[in-house]
Structures are given as structure tokens and as C-alpha cells.
Amino acid sequence: MSEPPKRVLCIEDDRETAALIAEDLIDRGYEVSTAHDGHEGLAAILRNAPDLVLSDISMPAMSGFELLERLIALAPRFAKMPFIFLTALTDRDNELRGRRLGADDYVTKPIDFDLLAAIIKARLAGVARTELWPRLIELNDREVECLTWAARGKTSAEVAQIVGLAKRTVDFHIDNARTKLGAATRIEAVGKAAAGGLIDP
Length: 201
What we know:
The chain is elongated, with a radius of gyration of 19 Å. The chain has nine helices and five strands; from the N terminus they run E-H-E-H-E-H-E-H-E-H-H-H-H-H. The protein is an alpha/beta fold. A five-stranded parallel β-sheet has the order 2-1-3-4-5, with helices on both faces. Helix 3 (about 65-75) links the parallel strand 3 and strand 4 (about 85).
């Protein structure tokens, strides 16, 4: 039996752009619904959680940034739902702001539909990998923080300075994470945590 199509919600105040995106993604086998402002988009997500959200940033009433903030505050269960911003804004500050909020990707307008399709496919595949990850593995915030810096090539002493802890405390958190992940070494722990979507190196 074939899998049901993945559901994509496109939140875009320009109706023509929304229709073009929907048409292209439907042709690629997705089930697509549209909303035309942030409030409508938020209601659609809460009513019928999609597999992935595409959202414009600049919209009347509620911007894409505000929508993502509201969504995470209201319903943390949506934190792992891929969220991709569509934007004509190419400046670095907006991209950084979106990524800090938890946006998974950016697609600038005019939209390259092949690129958009590749990003959607990759993000949904990432979710699928995460779904296979054992549910029992949960790292606490300190373990995630220390392991993330370790993944970026920092030593325990350097991590200690960055996060304001003693080196032995950093080692303690990394060892705990390594044990939870069933890893023999720190490098293996970093690899497993990254593969499972538990850290973002």
C-alpha cells in the first residue's frame, strides 16, 4: 500500500504566488493547502497539522516571524515540524532572526521551484530519520548545549568558557549524553546526536 501524500501548508498573502506554489507542489505529488495571512495560517496548523509549512515573512496582521513565535509558544509539539520561510528579503539579519526562531530554511523570491522541491524533500526526509530515532533518548538542555559546542570542534575547556561552567561539569554533561546515546566516544556521540536531530552542529 502506498504512503499517503505529504501535506504542505503554504501561507502567502499574494494569492497568485500561493496558487503557483500549490500547483507546482501538487504536480510533484504533495497535498497542498493555502492560507493568505498569519492568523489564517496559524488556525490551519492548529486545526490540521501539516507535515511541512512554507510561510511568507512579510504579511499583514501577523508576520511569518510572529507566526512561528506564536506557534512554538502555543504548541511545543510543532517544534519539529519543518518550517520554511519564503521571502523577498535577502538581508542577513532577517535570515539570522528566522533561524534563531527555529526556521529550517529560506527560499527567496522569485521562487526556483526545483530548489524549493529539493529543500522540501530534504526536510521531510530529515523528519523521517528523526521519527526512527528511539523515543527514549532525551538529552537535557545542558547536554545538548555542551554536545553542540563539542560538535563545532571546541574542547571541554573552551566549552566551559563559552557556557560559563567548570570544565569537569562540561565533561560530566558530555559523558551523560554519550551514555544516553550508547556511544563509545565523544565523536561517536556527536555523530549520533546530529544524525538523530538532537543537536544542530
